[in-house]
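User: Sequence in, structure out. Go.
Assistant: Echoing your sequence, followed by the structure tokens.
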Amino acid sequence: MSLPQDRADVLILGSGIAGLYTALSCHGLGRVTLLTKGKLSQSSTELAQGGIAAAVGPGDSPLFHFADTVAAGDGLCREEAVRVLVEEGPDTVRRLMELGVRFEAGLGREAAHSRRRILHWADITGDEIRRGLETALRALGSVSIREGHFAWDLVIVKGRCIGVTALDERDEPYVLLARATVIATGGAGQLYLYNTNPEVATGDGIAMAYRAGAWLEDMEFIQFHPTAFCSPEGGCFLISEALRGEGAVIVNRRGERFLFRYHPAAELAPRDVVARALFREMRETGEPVYLDLRPVEGLLRRFPHISERLRSQGLDPEKELIPVTPAAHYLMGGVKTDLDGYTGIPGLYACGEAACTGVHGANRLASNSLLEGAVFGARIARTLERSLPPPLPSFSLPQWRLPRIRLQVRKAVRVRKIWRRLQEIMWEKVGLERVGRELGEAWEEMRSLRASLGTPETREEKELENLLTVARVVARAAFIREESRGAHFRKDFPRRDDARWLRHLAHRRGRVIEG
């Protein structure tokens, strides 16, 4: 089957901060195309509330930011990557402001930060960053933006990535060839029944890279945000950690601040500690836990978006306790890269949540994710400026043996049933607390679910295949790591074991290496 083809010099997959900032940074490198399966506004960046961390305030320095990041990472941060993040962070946020992104004058503080270093715009910082970058990108006029285009798989020829097969907005298949392809597709929050991610977070780029032969690293480390509000009708939304930095507290039904039993920093303890404390309190008491926002001075003025969301659910945050639950929030692992975003496959790069530089270790420090996407996206652009792969020769499409993309209609009900079951398995057996036996059961059931899916023929089926691919790697990694560290907690191995496990796990087509 011969498919229509198009060409670019640089192809960027994804429209969060990593994709947008990379596209802006690649301006001038020839034909730059940004492909996103939804709208530019549909990303985890859009939903980010708290802000972006950088050592720009008085009394702060990259050294302090480095120390806080490494401490949160629980022994597994790659220190050279952290140095890049914190040292290039201040210039990166200044560049964001030059591009039109607005930040308020005061700096916020979040859990596990020793200084106030969170730049924010009310409680919709991610939306403001997206607005500023999108405006700047559209003003350039030289970057081709393709919304509604779904990257189906990477095209690999003689070990080199030369682009993607994709579906356009009408679900017509085509091939988009590129001298360099950048995966910036975000994480895989839709693995879990309760999550704070947008519906598009289905691990597409991570799964594509894995099928193409790239290494995935640190996949067992999935961060659960402690405070999400989940409505009875379904759907969760994040209640920012910044609120706890400004005085909000977590209580049980009796009004007790029970977090002191788990950590002396209580609400400002690392996210994994707070999330597991809430999970255990809810499980052991059979009762809900609450976020008390009443101590926050100027709540409605400083956090208008969160306040309005709660009011839309019939809750008055100035008068009532808000029921909260932990929810899957961020994947520390991803496609393994070096400090310049290179994946090890010629022509293929990755940045943002889809990538794993090792900067987050076993547990991401709050508000480092937006910074990471921009810092490492810019580094990819600088690398390509120095050494953009040569132009592609002309090829006959059939000799590449491109995958056949058949657009036959299947019953969506069946796909949603498999999808829902996967989310239940991940929440119950590969969630906040894990046990070896259950992880093995989860992996086997996922294999059965994958077999029942068959060959994907629609977007939704391909998204589900991508989730199943990522889920099996997560479960396997969690099974292999027989210790508890950062966001990974094994009830059957409840202690950190540096003698055996002060190392990273990387996975490639069924192979696992430790390093």
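User: And one key feature?
Assistant: The chain is about 35% helix and 20% strand.
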